[in-house]
């Protein structure tokens, strides 16, 4: 019996390892880059049009596998990565089964490009109650495609279907968005630091980023969503901001930061816990992403009823600078927010959108710090007086 009791924890550990390994792993999904073609090829070998099957995916409607360099009229179709991608026709949909952990939050990263319709979009969903439509009308880079992200929270089920659908109904059936590079990452919400009311203020926790993705990942608006691909933060406007990494951009601290791309139309915000009538300091770092973004660069920062512009002016080899905004909290929660003051583009192509980088966001109580300093000063005074009195008495 004793040996069985000793063996039981090991058995439970092995079983928990097997259960956890069943969930989807972070990174590219099975055939998420659409490079694995059906065993029998396609009905039209030149384009893959009319594909009846696609390994790892189920399909509804007209789904076309396109090749890099493929032409349509006078237009060359965009394939974000590799040799293949899929194009979704009117109301066409592809789905991928995912093994998930109950109650966990996942971020989906995918690359998308437009073809010939002006109002193209992709609807991404998990089940009937969790979905969002990502607008592809705005091109943020001159390459003609961008990487996007969307988050969902699993329920009690252990398997879900991740779906991508073209909601459009164009007269030209050859129009439709192109999809590539689908990846998933399980998200964790960091605990706030003892001296910082902001959650994920360093932006280190966020969606999956490919090591060869030089465009970063766009965070579309998620104002009406219960979950966010950037834990703690929401994008509360109708344009995206860009999640960047230190492998391809200049990041003030750590591995990740946020580039504000869209002027007043690209806002990130967070509600932080505060004590009414207490004074606080909002500090953050503002700088350049190192992507040839044209000056001037400036961030508008909000904290409660306070707002202030912070212009980034490079000094020497510096790529960023600290910023500070003091405010008095009026409630138990205070909104902090940031957007770019200007609409900036890159100097090397004048088309790709860019902007200032924000990192290291902190909100801390000035009143508490001042009170602690006063308490320390008073304690020192008390000790000094007591020591003096003792010396007089003994002397």
Automatic annotation (TrEMBL):
Keywords: Cell wall, Glycoprotein, Membrane, Secreted, Signal, Transmembrane, Transmembrane helix. The chain crosses the membrane at residues 377-394. It is found in: Secreted, Cell wall. Residues 27-185, 198-363 form the DUF642 domain. GO terms for cellular component: plasma membrane. InterPro entries: DGR2-like_dom, Galactose-bd-like_sf, Pectin_Meth_Modulator. It holds the Pfam family DUF642. Residues 1-22 form the signal peptide. Gene3D superfamilies: Galactose-binding domain-like. Its main location: secreted. SUPFAM superfamilies: Galactose-binding domain-like. Residues 35-54 are annotated as: Disordered. It comes from the Eukaryota. This is DUF642 domain-containing protein. It comes from Iris pallida.
């Amino acid at each position: 019996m004793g040996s069985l009791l000793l063996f039981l924890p090991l058995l439970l550990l092995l079983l928990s390892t097997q259960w956890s390994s069943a969930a989807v792993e972070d990174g590219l999904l099975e055939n998420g880059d659409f490079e694995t073609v059906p065993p029998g090829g396609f009905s039209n070998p030149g384009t893959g049009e009319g594909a009846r099957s696609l390994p790892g995916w189920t399909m509804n409607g007209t789904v076309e596998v396109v090749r890099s360099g493929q032409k349509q009229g006078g237009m060359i179709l965009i394939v974000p990565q590799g040799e293949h991608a899929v194009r979704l026709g009117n109301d066409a949909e592809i789905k991928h089964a995912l093994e998930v952990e109950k109650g966990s939050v996942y971020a989906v990263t995918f690359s998308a490009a437009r073809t010939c319709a002006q109002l193209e979009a992709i609807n991404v969903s998990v089940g009937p109650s969790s979905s969002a439509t990502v607008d592809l009308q705005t091109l943020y880079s001159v390459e003609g495609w961008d990487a996007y992200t969307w988050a969902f929270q699993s329920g009690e089920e252990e398997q879900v279907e991740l779906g991508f659908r073209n909601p459009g109904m164009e007269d030209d059936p050859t129009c439709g968005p192109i999809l590539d590079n689908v990846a998933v990452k399980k998200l964790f919400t960091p605990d706030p630091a003892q001296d910082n009311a902001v959650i994920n203020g360093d932006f280190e926790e966020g969606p999956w980023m490919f090591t060869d993705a030089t465009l970063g990942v766009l965070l579309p608006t998620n104002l009406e969503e219960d979950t966010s691909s950037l834990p703690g933060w929401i994008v509360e406007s109708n344009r995206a901001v860009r999640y960047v990494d230190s492998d391809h951009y200049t990041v003030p601290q750590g591995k990740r930061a946020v580039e504000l791309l869209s002027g007043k139309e690209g806002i990130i915000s967070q509600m932080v816990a505060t004590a009414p009538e207490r004074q606080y300091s909002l500090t953050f770092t503002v700088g350049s992403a190192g992507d040839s973004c044209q000056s001037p660069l400036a961030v508008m920062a909000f904290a409660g009823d306070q707002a202030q512009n912070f212009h980034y002016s490079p000094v020497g080899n510096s790529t960023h600078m600290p910023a500070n905004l003091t405010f008095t909290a009026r409630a138990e929660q205070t909104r902090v927010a940031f957007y770019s003051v200007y609409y900036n583009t890159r100097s090397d192509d004048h088309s790709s959108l860019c902007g200032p980088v924000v990192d290291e966001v902190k909100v801390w109580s000035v009143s508490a710090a001042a009170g602690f300093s006063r308490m320390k000063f008073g304690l020192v005074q008390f000790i000094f007086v007591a020591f003096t009195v003792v010396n007089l008495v003994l002397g």
